[in-house]
Amino acid sequence: MKKQTIAKIRLMKKKDKEYLYQLLAVPSPSGFETKAQDITESYLKPHADEIIRDLNGNLIAHKKGSGKRKIMIVGHADEIGFMVNYIDENGYLYVKTLGGFDVNLLPGLRVDIHTNKGIVRGLFGKKAVHMMRGDGDAPKLKIEDVWIDIGAKDKKDAENKVQIGDIITYNCQIEEFSNDRIVSKATDNKVGVYVAASVMKELSKTPLKAHLYSVASVGEETTMKGARTSSFTIEPDIAIAVDVTFSTDIPAADKRSFGDVSLGKGPALALGAALHPKLNQSLRDLAAKHKIPLQIELSPAGTGTDADGIHAQKRGVATMVLSIQIAICTRQTR
Predict the structure, then answer these.
(1) What local confidence, expressed as pLDDT, does residue 172 receive?
(2) 89 catalytic, yes or no?
(3) Phi and psi (nearest 5°) for 280?
(4) Catalytic one among 33, 220, 221, 297?
(5) In a 3-state reduction of DSSP, which class is residue 143?
(6) What 3-state class would DSSP assign to 231?
(7) d(Cα 113, Cα 151) in Å, to the nearest integer?
(8) Which of 70-74, 127-131, 149-153 has the lowest average pLDDT?
(9) What are the structural domains of the chain?
(10) Phi and psi of 287, rounded to 5°?
């Protein structure tokens, strides 16, 4: 998600809010989620019967039930980011992406480069508009057209500060807007992890018939490996992927293509071929019964979420996707 995304935030207990904000702030680009998993494990430790981390780094919290059924709620702990790919003779850094970006929005953004020696600050740059006169409309940028300036004198100076393969994340603070909305670099999908963890906490003292698994998965933005391996281990009967979706109540959004989904009007339930119709209908009936606002979005084929790695696992899993709206996004795909 962009350096900043906007989401609705409700009043919550102090410790819960602290957990969410710590989770949003900590760097955890795809494939490098350990710090985020540490925060979630600390939060869930008093509320789960057991917590494990698998070989890929998934965090799986389990509350035991009296029956045989298993329910899995999953949010992915990784955020989009970059890796240092090349350092030129002038000390500028070129990158590969961890996840999808709208490259045209990168110039001018500040970043943190995470090195063995600590954080190095940087700034995305591109050729100045004054140097493109006569070229007509500014071309759509490719990742090779932008670079990161760390203030290095030359290549040797830069190599003393960073190295190939160092990970990079946006440098921005969490901010609270009006109407209980927040801005962060990693709403996608730390809010999904927060929801999965919060369900475990809320039900920690409630006797359950089904086994409950709250999962903070890894690698969703790049490989979907976390969804596949965690669901293979758990073998759930029902899986609920909590992610984010685009709000279409913004200027120039084409609702004919993207549907009608508004910020602050309730989560969006996805309908589509990969998702279980009976499970979806049960949730719609439950929301109507309790007068809980619920929006609908369509994902006719793939969902672009962890659900894609879960629904066909082993003998099959009854899967649904619930999404939280975000209003600003620079990703090229969901």
Answers:
(1) 86
(2) no
(3) -60, -40
(4) 220
(5) helix
(6) helix
(7) 13
(8) 127-131
(9) 5-79+185-326 (3.40.630.10), 81-170 (2.40.30.40)
(10) -65, -40
Which amino acid is residue 72, in one-letter code? M
What one-character-per-residue DSSP string does 175-219 give?
A: EEETTTEEEES-HHHHHHHHHHHHHHHHTTTS--SSEEEEEEES-
Q: How many CB atoms lie within 10 A of CB 172?
A: 18
Write out the two tokens for 267: 């989560």
Per-residue pLDDT, 136 = 59
Whether the full predicted model's pTM is greater than 0.85, yes or no, is yes
> 43-61: b or e for each residue (b if 16 or more CB lie within 10 Å)?
bbeebbeebeeeebbbbbb
Output the six-digit token pair for 223.
């490989």
Tokens 């009608």 found at: 260
Helix or strand run (H / E) with residue 281: helix 277-289
Distance CA 277, CA 287 (A): 15
CB of 9 closer than 8 Å to CB of 198 = no
Q: Are 89 and 154 in contact (CB under 8 A)?
A: yes
Task: List Cβ<8 Å contacts ≥24 apart for 176-179.
Answer: 176/9, 177/6, 179/8, 179/264
Read off the pLDDT of residues 185-234 as tens digits, 9 standing for 90 and up.
Answer: 999 999 999 999 999 999 999 999 999 999 999 999 999 999 999 999 99
The pLDDT tens digits for 278-310 are: 999 999 999 999 999 999 999 999 999 999 999
Q: Which residues contact 199 (CB under 8 A, 6 or more apart)?
A: 73, 212, 214
CA distances from 202 to 41, 210, 215 (A): 16, 15, 15
With beta carbons less than 8 A apart as the criterion, state whether 119 and 113 touch: yes
With b for 16 or more beta-carbon neighbours within 10 A and e for fewer, the 96-115 pattern comes to: ebbbebebeebbebebbbbe
**In this structure, what is the dihedral angle of CA atoms 296, 210, 233, 28, given to the nearest 10 degrees?**
50
